[in-house]
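Collaborator request log, item 7. Partner lab (contact: R.S.) asked for a structural prediction of JmjC domain-containing protein to inform their binding assays.
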Amino acid sequence: MSDNLSNIFFNGGKNPIYDFANLLKTGFQNPEGITGSVKVHIPEHPDQSFIARYSDELHIEPCEALQETDTLVSIPMATMERIATDFEFLDWRDPEIIGTITFEGNLNLANHLAKSCQRPTDVTTALFQRVGKLHREKGYSNLTEVERLNCPTQMQVLERIEAGCPTIITGLEPSSSSGNWSLDKLAERYGVAVVRVRSATQRQTMREFVEELQAFEQNPYEEMVEGFVKPYTEGASLPEAMWADFGPLFFDREDFTPPQLWLGSVPTNIPTSSLHRDPQTGFLLQVMGQKRLDLYSADQEALLYPHKAYNNYQPCWFKPEVPDYGLYPEAEKAKCISVTLNPGELLLQPAGWFHQVYALDSPNMSVSYFWRY
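Returned to partner:
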């Protein structure tokens, strides 16, 4: 079938379905040769539903009503319009996005497709170029350790941000975030707070999520799908009820984006966050357990094969935990710094550093927030 979008969708005037399909097609990459098919169903306009078929390129095809595919994604028209309009800023973890969509079948295909719709702003692209030049001038690819600062002043923190140099901050007292936290204590204190939204039909309170984690600890499973099947909140919005205990520890609350919660249990050999970089300076507060972060300077971009389609963060195709140097040969030259973050410690990570995160024990909890400036 033809995948000329003009032959499939009316593209005159405003047509969110055409715009959404065009985003998918132009943002698609497939260096690993994934194959499969995803039916994108629009409940209000089932006759405009279509199939996205994976090969060397992404082919968009009309869809017959009963045609079977590997994956079914149902997206309301209002959500599709928002994605087609806000592709530079949308976050799939936003309950107003993911909470309206339903998924069936191969979730890896759905996850791969979703990432094709994002695009960076010109500001983000320029920032990464500027940071890459800074890291190259300072020789950060040759760093062998991350400095620790005890009880730094706000001026010292600003100086580290300006220098683009990662730093572990210690001595954060008094702070309830460095208290003796446990799953039971979290469930008791924040039991009814919603901590994870995975689809239009899947929402979990803290108490429900803790029960899932405890069940996983008793009977762990190996197959995990980022964003779907994983006993981990993966940066979900920190519930408002938790802000007082785990909110920003420097500057004012208004200086930061809303905090994100990283709570769960995953095997120590699987990264809790795959290799990526952020366009804002991040603060990662460790609350329970330990985390290891492997950091790569921004001037190593060409060695790590970053995605061309991204917005709030840029993932990489190269996976250090299962390196395929045949497919990604330049990655063999990349150098990383590994740091361990303990409970009560805060990692200051200036914008642009590529990083991958591992939980060293379980259960594990961190809270992150990004500086707006």
